[in-house]
Amino acid sequence: MIELANAAYSYGGGDILTELNLRLAPGSFHFLTGPSGSGKTTLLRLCYMELLPSGGQVNIFDTDVRNMSRDQVANTRRRIGVVHQDCKFLDHLTLAENIALPLDVSGRDAEAELGNLNELLSWVGLSKRADALPPQLSGGERQRAALARAVIMSPDVIIADEPTGNIDWEMALKLMKLLVELNRMGKTILIATHDLNLIRNVKSQTSARVLRIQNRRLQLAGADL
Amino acid sequence: MAILRKLSTLLGGDQKADRVVPPSGYTARLTTFTAGAMAFLAVFALALSLATGRLADRWSAELARTATVRISAPQGQMEAQSRAVLKVLETTPGIKSARVLTDAEQRKLLEPWFGPDLPLDDLPIPRLIEVVEESAGPDIEGLRLRLAAEAPGAVFDDHTRWRQPLVSAASRLRLLAAFSLALIAVSTAAMITLAANAALSANSTVISVLRLVGARDTYIARAFVRRFTIRAFMGGLFGTLAAMLAVFLLPAAAEEGAFLTGLGFVGWHWAYPLLIPPLSAIVAFWATRAAAFKTLRGLT
Question: Which residues of B touch A101 (CB under 8 A)?
Fold first, then answer.
């Protein structure tokens, strides 16, 4: 699905990440951890083509990202759901409209898929907040809504960047439960987090690999987890 | 058919795409106002172009078909020389008709300079003979030689020295008006590009989110292009209608053909200004499209 082969990313002459080797197999669950500023978000951005590698290769769905046209990038992104750390909502649209945005931009009829949308809102516990604007939502509601938007296109891969960063423990567990459910449905999951307790909690429910970024390189985390 | 389908999609609009990109107030007003002002100016430039065209044609045609013979002779010889000139003209091929201007006609010609009741008999004023040529015209040099022999005080004036500068001035004015129209189109494109760039910058977050959720460049560009095209069309329509009304209310062309009173449209020329709103929309379409794709190419 997503494969990094000796990939590197540098900015302003300095290496941010180097010798990255990773293969996300279909249906796998991966955590990405590391200290703040280690490059977790940069690696995720390489995985959904917001950044292009400065060295090595990044293949997504068997295509080298450097060979993709702009339309191909757009089409590929429809197969990858992303939960951003800051959610990236459009503040002038309602919650329901924000969640349906990937349907709209891909030309699918959001009206026709209203049933799916309502089901999704109910799944993330936001049925009653459909008409609220993003600034009116709490941190937890925003993260759950971001997850709903990430999965509305039924993507093959879900990438989440610190999805529990701004919410309390109870809400974080709820969100993780939803992600585990998605993984059980066959979705490939990649989550960046520095919360080791959360990782332990999920590992008790499902089989997950934990990767760590250290010294700009990607390593398999040890038994301390 | 494909073009019609695209046009229909553009005008019919995509409510979702429109909703996704929030309307930016000041760029909307700026675009509509600019398109309106430019259309207003374009109508006047067009009117000027058409009026100078008409004027050049009229001057050229009227002066080309007529000539004047001026006789300056002592009072005692005036009648004899006039008769001699008329005789020469009557026998010259290419001359349709010739007649001596009456005192009343000469007085009317001089009235703007000397006022009414001019005592023509007391003044040494030359006698004028109006000559109307046939389409082929006479042999000017031969005619001049014959006149010099028969009536030494007669001077044949075929109006060339008047006609050429007038026609040349009118043609230059027409060229200037056409150049002004081109300048207006380019300025409209530049202003709309600036407004589109401002709107694109103001919505950079929206554009980046749309790209991240899988929007293609055409989807994002369409929302901006459609909005600016419609604004330019509406602004152009208001500006054109206002200018057409202003032109319509200008004083009617005077009999003397005074240039300023002849600045307007005649007959089916009134249809020309109606091309300005769609042209304004086309300029806006391409300017916004180019600006949008240029901005989008800078994003991943």
Answer: 20, 209-210, 213
Kindly report, residue by residue over A156-197, the tens digit of the pLDDT: 999 999 888 777 888 888 888 888 988 999 999 999 998 888
Q: Give the best residue of B15, B18, B210, B213 to mutate against chain A (max A CB count within 10 A).
A: B213
Is the CB of residue A153 less than 8 Å away from at least one CB of chain B? Answer: yes
CA distance linking residue B70 with residue B76, whole number of Å: 16
pLDDT of residue B253: 61
Short-list A63, A209, A151, CA closest to B213: A151
Determine contact: A29 vs chain B, CB below 8 A.
no
8 Å CB contact between B100 and B82: yes
Q: State whether residue A90 sits within 8 Å of chain B by CB.
A: yes
Q: Please, what is the average pLDDT of chain A?
A: 88
Q: Show residues of chain A in contact with B23, CB under 8 Å.
A: none
A93 with B219: Cβ contact below 8 A: no
Interface test with B, best of A49, A78, A80, A101 (most B CBs within 10 A): A101
C-alpha closest to that of B131 among B54, B69, B180: B69
Q: Examine the pLDDT at A118 and tell me if it is beyond 90.
A: no
Q: Residue B154 forms beta bridges with which residues?
A: B71
Spell out the long-range contacts of A74-78 with Cβ–Cβ below 8 A and sequence spacing 24 or more.
A74/B211, A74/B214, A74/B215, A74/B216, A74/B217, A75/B214, A75/B216, A76/A49, A77/A48, A77/A49, A77/B211, A77/B212, A77/B213, A77/B214, A78/A102, A78/A106, A78/A153, A78/A155, A78/B213, A78/B214
ipTM: 0.87
CB-CB contact of A116 with A82 (8 Å): no
CA neighbor of A98 nearest in space, from B220, B19, B217, B200:
B19
What are the start-end ranges of the H helices in B13-139?
15-20, 25-65, 75-90, 103-114
Burial of residue B276 (CB within 10 Å: 0-12, 13-18, 19+) is buried
Residue among A51, A70, A82 minimizing CB distance to B212: A82
- Contact map slice: A 122-141 vs B, CB within 8 A: none
Nearest residue, CB atoms, B206 vs list A73, A84, A90? A90
Beta carbons of A153 and B214 less than 8 Å apart: yes
Q: Count Cβ neighbours within 10 Å for each residue of B233-256 and write b for 16 or more, e otherwise.
A: bbbbbbbbbebbeebeeeeebeee
**Closest CA of chain B from A150, distance in Å:** 8
Q: Each residue of B38-64: pLDDT tens digit?
A: 999 999 999 988 888 887 777 777 667
CB A185 within 8 A of CB A159: no
